[in-house]
Design a protein that fits this description.
The chain has about 280 residues and is of the alpha/beta class. The protein has helices at about 10-15, 20-25, 60-65, 65-75, 90-95, 115-125, 140-145, 170-175, 195-210, 225-235, 255-260, 275-280; strands spanning about 5, 35-40, 45, 50-55, 80-85, 105, 130-135, 155, 185-190, 215-220, 245, 265. α5 packs parallel to α6 (about 115-125) and α8 (about 170-175) packs across α11. The longest helix is centred in the C-terminal third of the chain and has 14 residues, at about 195-210. The protein is globular and about 65 Å long. The two termini are about 35 Å apart.
Length: about 280
């Protein structure tokens, strides 16, 4: 239901979501998989066993997705997986337009329980949804407590996305990232209050004073708290030379950063899945 109109090239879009397409390709080994994406292009593409359907839709057509659901019904599905809880209205419409013999599954994508009218729509849609996929059952409890999911028994533990990364030679990785020091710590995330880089920097400064061989590399896609972070470094000149603010790194290049590090740090207050930690673990 997401309208990704900035993408007109289906291959560019699939490259953007390569961590997700890997999952589809694994599913395709055991099932006939058709994946629908609304971008600025219309057509179909068969790749690695997955049949991709690209549809050009307006915002109104996705808000009132009658035509989209007719298209889905034409594909004669056995099961439909809806990605994300943000589309409670569309999911409810889907439940009404498909035969009740077709199970509908909703996969969690980091959302917290819905508010206002979406909360009511989710409660109604829950009557028709057959199952939910969550990275952990613990994340289901707030939804059950709010009455937006009737029972935790409807939820199953399934990781949101897999990692596309793997271990590579550390010396090769460091030759690309230019990482130095014998023990490298890595932090990857947005510089916002939820990811909490302030706690991370405040903790690392005294740690670095006690351990002269360590360094910290900070990769961030958004920099809301960059001024506060820089202020902490100015106040600690004795160790700030071992704390590197790398900035934005393209996703495919993170392979070399994860393989350059010895430890991954996470200071998030809330995570839907913990993609950075998962990807780091897959690199060892």
């Amino acid at each position: 239901y997401a309208n990704m109109r900035t993408y007109a090239d289906p291959l560019a879009w699939l490259k953007r979501i390569n961590f997700f397409t890997i999952l589809l390709e694994q599913m395709a080994k055991d099932a006939d998989v058709k994946s629908i994406h609304c971008i600025n292009y219309s057509g179909t593409l068969m790749r690695n066993g997955v049949e991709y359907h690209f549809l050009k839709r307006t915002a109104l057509q996705l808000a009132v997705p009658i035509q989209l659901h007719r298209y889905i019904r034409m594909l004669n599905p056995d099961v439909v997986i809806v990605h994300g809880f943000l589309y409670s209205w569309q999911t409810l419409c889907l439940c009404w337009q498909l035969p009740n013999t077709i199970p509908i599954v909703v996969q969690h994508h980091s959302e917290t329980p819905l508010r206002h009218y979406k909360s009511l729509l989710q409660k109604i849609a829950d009557r028709f949804v057959a199952a939910y996929f969550f990275p952990s059952l613990e994340q289901v409890r707030p939804w059950v407590n709010k009455g937006q999911i009737k029972s935790i028994e409807k939820a199953y533990e399934v990781m949101e996305v897999p990692s596309v990364f793997r271990p590579v030679d550390g010396a090769l990785a460091r030759s690309i990232t230019k990482v130095i020091s014998s023990t490298v710590y890595l932090w990857v995330g947005r510089l916002d209050e939820n990811k909490d880089p302030i706690t991370m920097i405040k903790a690392f400064i005294p740690f670095a004073r006690d351990h002269v061989s360590v360094s910290l590399y900070v990769i961030y896609q958004r920099d809301e708290l960059i001024d506060q972070v820089k202020k902490l470094l100015v106040e600690a000149p004795d160790v700030s030379g071992r704390i590197f603010l790398v900035g934005k790194v393209e996703h495919d290049q993170l392979l070399y950063w994860f393989n350059s590090a010895d430890f991954i740090i996470s200071t998030s207050h809330y995570e839907g899945m913990g993609v950075a930690v998962t990807e780091a673990m897959s690199c060892g």
